[in-house]
Amino acid sequence: MCPLAATVRRIFMLFVFLRPPETPGRGDEGQADTSFSDSSLFAHWGQDLSPDNRRVALKMFQYYGYNGYLSDRLPLDRPMPDLRPDGCRNITYPLNLPQVSIVFIFVNEALSVILRSIRSAINRTPSHLLKEIILVDDNSSNNELKEKLEDFVSQTNSQRPGFIKVVRHLKQEGLIRSRVSGWRAATAPVVALFDAHVEFNIGWAEPVLQRIQEDRTRIISPSFDNIKYDTFEIDEYPLSAQGFDWELWCRYLNPPKSWWYKGNKSAPIQSPALIGCFVVDRLYFEEIGLLDEGMEVYGGENVELGIRVWQCGGSIEVLPCARIAHIERAHKPYTEDLTSHVRRNALRVAEVWMDEFKSHVYMAWNVPMEDSGIDIGDVSERKALRKRLQCKTFRWYLVNMYPEMRMYSDTVAYGVMKNSLKNDLCLDQGPDNDNVPILYLFQAECVIDLCKQRIWEKKNGVDVNRRISK
Ligand SMILES: [Mn+2]
Known about the structure:
Elements lengths: L8 H10 L32 H14 L3 H4 L28 E7 L4 H14 L5 E8 L9 H13 L4 E5 L5 H12 L4 E6 L2 E3 L4 H10 L3 E10 L6 E2 L5 E4 L5 E4 L3 H6 L6 E2 L7 E4 H6 L13 H11 L3 E13 L10 H16 L4 H7 L15 H9 L5 H8 L23 E4 L9 E4 L6 H4 L19
Parallel strand pairs: 1-2, 1-4, 2-3, 6-12
Antiparallel strand pairs: 4-11, 5-12, 6-7, 8-9, 10-12, 13-14
Helix pairs in contact: 10-11, 11-12
The structure holds manganese (II) ion.
The site of manganese (II) ion has 4 residues, from loops.
């Protein structure tokens, strides 16, 4: 899911590449420890660990993207600060709310992190509202997720038969098809699709189920707080709507003005899209086309769902009174090259949903519109779905649901500008939030993929599309 700092990612990348290589620092505890000083794991944690334990912790961190060593030593049942804004605690909810199935998807997740997700779901969802928990294992290779997990499941089910179901993929299907597998196994009228590294906060379920009961075409996201990947402390996040940039990476947005005018922090926040985890009426989800199962691995499915729901007559809300803490991992475990999957999935969204604005996604990824060389697979079924549901245009969506998204018109060209005489001289787009390209010297030849160089011209003029190089 979405790091709060997603918007500064690119600026940070640039900074990293411009910075001269660091000279290895001196370890606090002598020469043996210099290798540890580079890991962000030990910036705020683990100073008192022995070198051997540090080594174990570092290995687990590299594997999981969070502090699995610490997680294994924390209680599964742990208290959590009630982070709901004022006004949430004295709302009363109907007694006849629908039941929910909670789906957790994972691949090679730390067992203690999964079990803590399950524990918090059981402890903080009223038991008459929680029908079942579904675990989707996307073909993990990690052994502790086999027998030990089965033991836990059969122990729990011995008290409550059939309460936890396990779905195991025989080959890795990626996050998107894993969520759909979980949905297929669910039987409650409402399905909550989550990562397996979360902790549910008190009172999360009632507001969500009430909003869906009132209108089954609402897809609901809770408000997310962060579980720090190193210390596992819970870090309160500001209330946000959820959106995306033109590469279709998720981002948190300031709630719309109309929400601020209400002066009621417990009111639902209308949101252009979803950042990944959401709760939905089980049958409505099928009617509007689930997720795009032609997408691979990770990314873009949340944006596609957001656009589709709005364009095809539903709505999306983030609820301030429903809070869930989620571990923002330092790195994702799915694959080495997440970006190429996000790009492919983004182009599928562009082709099916974005009409004349699809060029914006191609530009953002610095990919030519024709002959991009990227195989996006078959999108005919998704196009047929759009037609069948008689969905509105993307322009309608942008103007009405996502007005803060910048539109580009009169583009003359985009792509990479290369200096054929001096190839260590790079021209970069500069920071995202202004329009000032920057020129700088690179250590060697400009690395185009890393720098994401592109120029977006706004003046009318010659057609220079053929000069795009990649
Ligand atoms: Mn996640």
